[in-house]
Structures are given as structure tokens and as C-alpha cells.
Write a structure and sequence with these properties.
33% of the residues lie in helices and 17% in strands. By secondary structure, the protein is an alpha/beta fold. It has two domains: 10-156 and 269-338, NAD(P)-binding Rossmann-like Domain (Rossmann fold); 161-267, 2-Layer Sandwich (Dihydrodipicolinate Reductase, domain 2), CATH 3.30.360.10. The strands form three sheets. It has a four-stranded parallel β-sheet, with helices on both faces. Strands 7-6-8-9 form a four-stranded mixed β-sheet. It is globular, with a radius of gyration of 20 Å. It starts with 18 loop residues before the first strand and ends with a helix.
Length: 342
């Protein structure tokens, strides 16, 4: 999304450690492990440089839903019998600076384990999943006290279902259309969608996606009139995510207005470009000695940031943060009046 952030382009990010729990990945070099099953995304770069980084066994905790065992090997996780490593010590030994957390939805204990490891190892965090760390006051304070930046929670894709839904919701409001009802239904065939067949793991995901859209309304919709959440797992779709959005509203004279949209994207690379930005923003925060949530970057790159704002404002504030106009990305402090006054 930004070719350069600070002194760094995308190719300046170096992987120094990697964690997984799948026996087809643990013990392999990272450039081999990323192609191993159950990965099913489109390969856009097959020739990768050889590294000395070996994928290490992470703690399982609640990271694997039991129903994974009922699905074929090519579609589901298969646990390694290796002993988990000490994540914090591994991060220290690798001299890591930023940890990217992409745990399965519903991995509350596992995500907190990695967050605590960041605090112990002195590592910044980019939390790409809807387990609330950056947006939880207690965890935010822990990162603030440790002097470590965090960008979170729950990644927005470059152009994905949530950002499109948010934009259309804001468009309805800006054009004076009353939004009465809306839904977003998604299907996909990757392990993210398979994992979310376990409905007990979905609470935080539904909250994250729903609140992300609600935040763009001047007045909240009744919970019965808004339904946003994963829908179903379709194995043959692989990493292709298909989103269906419907919006029903009223314009001038209460005349009905209906909008229906179908969107098809490759799910994983759609969020990867955003993560590459978030990692570099976290590094920028480290260099500037900022602890706690990076407010602007979190609002721009994540569905559930500590502070929700319009995407246009989040974009401007993030650019201001990158340029050093506002070292902490906090609205209204050290910003040009045209930005702070929006």
C-alpha cells in the first residue's frame, strides 16, 4: 500500500524466525514450508531465496479446532509431535523486532501467549486476527509500559469485503440515504473458512466485522438489521473468497434503494500487502520509542482498532505518522489543522 515507509521498502523485511504446528511445516526451512499443505493460495513467486530459518514448533493451546481431524490431509492441520519451543527466548535469540500473528480465528489463549512472548522478548506486534489485544485496555497498557508498539486487531484486506462494506455504508450516510438492513455473507475454501465452521470460535470475528461496519454509521443499526460474518466452507474454492453484500435503504421521499454486490478475491495475498505496511509502521514506532497501540495505523490497517474512524481520515493520519508529522499517530496532536479538524 506504501512503496516506502521510513527507510524501508517491502524487500527490506527479513524473516528471522517462524512458528507453526503442522508436521508438514515444522522443521522445514521457511521458504519450503510456506508452500506445504494445507496452503492453497495462488503462487505469485515460486523462486525464493534460500534461508537458514527453520520453522519451529509453537504452542498449540486452542489454536486447532477439533473438527479439523474430520477433514482430508490436504485441507486441514496435521499436528506435529515436536515439543513446543519457548517463543520469547526464540524471539530474543533471533533478535526479532516485529512479530506477525496470524493464528486461526478463535485462538484466544494462543494469541495471548504470543502477545506475552512479545512483551518478554521486547518485540513489537502486528495482530492480524480478531483476538482483542491492541483494542483491549489492559493489554494496550502492557505494551505501552513496555515501550513496544502494536498494530491491531484483525487485518483489513487491501480491497476486501469489510473495506468495501465500510465504504458503501459511509457512502449511503454521506449521500443522505437511510440504511435499514444489510448483510455480508462469505464463502471460501482455505483453512480460515474451515476453522470457522466451528461456530463457538466465531464470536470475536463476528463482533470485529460487524463493529467495523457499524462504526461508519452516524447512528447504530439495530442488531437484528445487520448480519455480517463468515458463511460457509467450500473446499474447491481454495483461497478464493467470494463475498455477497446486500444493502437496503431509503432515499428522498423514503423511496427504496437496494444494492447487491458479489466480490471475488484471493484471500491471503489480499491481506499480505497490508501486513507488509503494518510491519514497517511497527518498526517505525520502535525507532521513535513509541509504546502501545499505533492509533492511526491500527485504524487504517485493522478492523478492530482501539479507535474507529473514517477510512479517509485514517489514511491521512497514517500518512502523517509515516512522515513524522505526528510521532504517535494520535488524532489532533501535532497534526496540520486541515487533518486534525476533520
Amino acid at each position: 500500500m506504501h512503496s516506502r515507509i521510513g527507510d524501508w521498502g517491502p524487500s527490506d523485511i527479513e524473516i528471522v524466525a517462524a512458528f507453526d504446528i503442522d508436521r508438514r511445516k515444522v522443521g522445514k526451512r521457511v521458504e519450503e514450508a510456506i508452500f506445504a499443505k494445507p496452503n492453497c493460495t495462488k503462487v505469485f513467486q515460486s523462486a525464493l531465496p534460500v534461508s537458514n530459518v527453520v520453522v519451529q514448533m509453537g504452542p498449540i493451546l486452542d489454536g486447532v479446532a477439533p473438527h479439523m481431524a474430520d477433514y482430508p490431509d490436504d485441507e486441514a492441520f496435521r499436528l506435529s509431535d515436536e515439543e513446543p519451543v519457548d517463543v520469547a527466548q526464540t524471539l530474543k535469540d533471533a533478535r526479532a523486532e516485529v512479530l506477525v500473528c496470524y493464528m486461526p480465528v478463535g485462538s484466544e489463549k494462543a494469541v495471548r501467549h504470543y502477545a506475552q512472548a512479545c512483551l518478554e522478548a521486547g518485540v513489537a506486534m502486528v495482530n492480524c486476527v480478531p483476538v482483542f489485544i491492541s483494542s483491549d485496555g489492559e493489554w494496550a497498557e502492557k505494551f505501552r509500559d513496555a515501550g513496544l508498539p502494536i498494530v491491531g486487531d484483525d487485518i483489513k484486506s487491501q480491497v476486501g469485503a469489510t473495506i468495501v462494506h465500510r465504504t458503501l455504508t459511509r457512502l449511503f450516510g454521506d449521500r443522505g440515504v437511510q440504511l435499514d438492513r444489510t448483510y455480508q455473507l462469505n464463502t471460501g475454501g482455505n483453512t480460515d473458512f474451515l476453522n470457522m465452521k466451528a461456530l463457538d470460535r466465531l464470536k470475536s470475528k463476528k463482533v470485529s466485522k460487524t463493529e467495523s461496519v457499524q462504526s461508519q454509521l452516524d447512528e447504530r443499526m439495530d442488531s437484528n438489521d445487520i448480519h455480517i460474518g463468515p458463511s460457509d466452507y467450500v473446499p474447491w474454492q481454495d483461497d478464493n473468497k467470494v463475498a455477497f453484500i446486500r444493502m437496503e435503504g431509503r432515499g428522498f421521499g423514503d423511496v427504496p434503494l437496494e444494492l447487491e454486490l458479489r466480490m471475488s478475491v484471493q484471500d491471503s495475498p489480499n491481506s499480505a500487502g497490508v501486513v507488509i505496511d503494518a510491519v514497517r509502521c511497527a518498526k517505525l514506532g520502535l525507532e521513535r520509542g513509541i509504546g502501545g497501540p499505533l492509533e492511526a495505523a491500527s485504524a487504517y490497517y485493522m478492523k478492530s482498532p482501539p479507535t474507529q474512524m473514517r477510512d479517509s481520515l485514517a489514511y491521512e493520519l497514517t500518512d502523517a505518522f509515516i512522515q513524522g508529522i505526528d510521532a504517535e499517530g494520535v488524532v489532533g496532536e501535532g497534526l496540520p489543522q486541515t487533518i486534525a479538524g476533520e
